[in-house]
Write a structure and sequence with these properties.
The structure is a homodimer of 302-residue chains.
Chain A: E1 3-6, E2 10-15, E3 20-26, H1 28-36, E4 42-49, H2 54-61, E5 66-73, E6 78-84, E7 91-97, E8 117-120, H3 125-133, E9 141-145, H4 148-153, H5 155-162, E10 167-171, H6 172-179, H7 184-192, E11 198-202, E12 208-211, E13 217-219, H8 233-248, H9 253-270, H10 277-281, H11 284-298
Helix pairs in contact in A: 1-8, 6-7, 8-9, 9-11
Chain lengths: 302, 302
């Protein structure tokens, strides 16, 4: 397995202005791995409780996602409940029940310990670090996500972690918070100064700004007719991004730009349904078609 | 004169989180014409009061902006005062004194009545319409800006006007308000259905989304180290956009994309100072350099 992700596997309750759904399959590692599976083999390191429904596991297995690192612990699966504002961008977290995820210590299975590409999805930085410590060799490309909670409450651990990263992926408000700088270009550069050579700032419907050693760049989001549920869009973006890179094997400047565009495209499918409902229906050909459309939309003739 | 703009000429007071400046040269026609003057000759239709400082007039004349249509009326010049929020994007209007602008009826001077390119900056739609009625022939390309006030209070007049436009330029919140649709792609298409073949949705620091007959496209904003004052950025964008198009003479699909990129670039200079302070210092070579940078940032290798 060439791509490893550590992150959450959860049961979500999501309320949007249009609808409410209970007991959805969610979690960063789920969205990431499903998105990445269009491009490459991917292994999950995570934990679920004894209540985790077998049909959810089956959904991942059908995509050949390696679940050797998915432990089952006594107790219940992580649960998250959130409600989106009318703009479908801001949301309030209504409830979090960590359950078995509260005691989670990642264990990398032998089948994944030599992965060249590693994504540390948004969990506490000290645990992200433990995954790296278990790799047989320094992976070719390590990226991580983080969140406001760790920037505020675990900054020292985060600072240690980011020194070991090739790329940090975070959203615009997190980039501002972590750097203390409002404009995103200098904010991204301030984060690059902390260690990661590449910083990917996600801007939701506005796409992504990337600070990269071979030149900064912007990739638009794939514009949608309607957003049903943006939950998991950021993790799907990361999955498409890392999945494409892992499939290439090497991270060239051109591959980096294309990978961000594939991330945007995969995230757009996720937004069109609750949980994995819409992404599941997408084929690799659907992804290629949107990728070509996105390239055409971004094209400025010189 | 091949490009005509009708709009406001004003004296602004601007407060940002960092500074406050009084008695600045402002107004949509001022920012537009100064931006456009880098590309082509441009004529202003507008009005000032007897208090309009001669040095402001001189600043425009030095760029060879045609002021034959700039009337002086008894009374005081239009005044606007605003305060920016910490995010430098949202702002509160603190005071508006229409003064001579309240009675303004545009009169197109003979020197500009045959212009092929016309921009109707943000004034009441019925007055925008009067400019078109005075043109000797149907111009090759007519674009207009509008605002929330007219969308809410002069919608019928706006609906009549947009039927005659080639392009409508408006910001994201205005596009949502005018279309009643939240997602920007269908919002833009709903506005296209009202008449203009092209709709340019400005998203501030996130660039622009363009709904166009030969394919929709996105152009990023030129990312800045710091924003000093965004007042006039939208009008400068329109000026760079229309100025470039007027200089080409014809509106090809490729020219449309390049024109939006030039608009973004010129707007970026405006944001780097109060009033015209930063844009004034930019040379055409500076604009070309940023245009090339923007193209390189937007490039996604296929």
């Amino acid at each position: 397995m060439n791509l490893l992700v550590v992150g959450s596997i959860g049961i979500d309750t999501v309320e949007t202005p249009a609808a409410r759904r209970d007991n959805l399959l969610g979690g960063s590692a789920v969205y990431f791995s499903y998105a990445a599976s269009y491009f490459t083999g991917v292994a999950i390191v995570g934990v679920v409780g004894q209540d985790f429904p077998p049909e959810h596991r089956k959904l991942l297995e059908e995509r050949n996602i390696d679940l050797a690192g998915l432990g089952t612990a006594p107790g219940k699966t992580f649960r998250w409940s959130g409600k989106y504002h009318k703009n479908m961008n801001d949301r309030d977290t209504l409830d979090v029940q960590l359950n078995v995820f509260g005691e989670f210590v990642p264990t990398v299975p032998p089948s994944a310990a030599a992965a060249d590409f590693v994504f540390l999805a948004n969990i506490v930085p000290a645990q992200q670090h433990k995954v790296l410590a278990q790799m047989k060799k320094r992976p070719r490309f390590v990226a991580a996500d983080t969140m406001n909670l760790w920037i505020q409450n675990a900054r020292a651990d985060l600072d240690v972690l980011v020194r070991e990263l090739d790329a940090l992926v975070l959203n615009d408000s997190e980039a501002r918070m972590y750097s203390g700088v409002h404009e995103l270009l200098p904010a991204g550069r301030a984060i690059v100064a902390k260690g990661p050579k590449t910083v990917i700032i996600k801007k939701g419907e506005h796409g992504a700004l990337v600070i990269a050693p071979d030149g900064n760049f912007c990739v638009p989001a794939y514009p949608l007719e309607a957003v049903v549920d943006p939950t998991g869009a950021g993790d799907s973006f990361a999955g498409g991004f890392m999945g494409y890179l892992a499939a290439q094997g090497t991270v060239t400047p051109a591959a980096l730009r294309r990978a961000v565009a594939y991330g945007s495209v995969v995230a757009s499918f996720t937004c069109q349904g609750f949980s994995l409902d819409a992404l599941r229906k997408a084929t690799r050909a659907d992804i290629e078609a949107r990728f070509k459309e996105l390239l055409e939309m971004a094209r400025i003739p010189g």
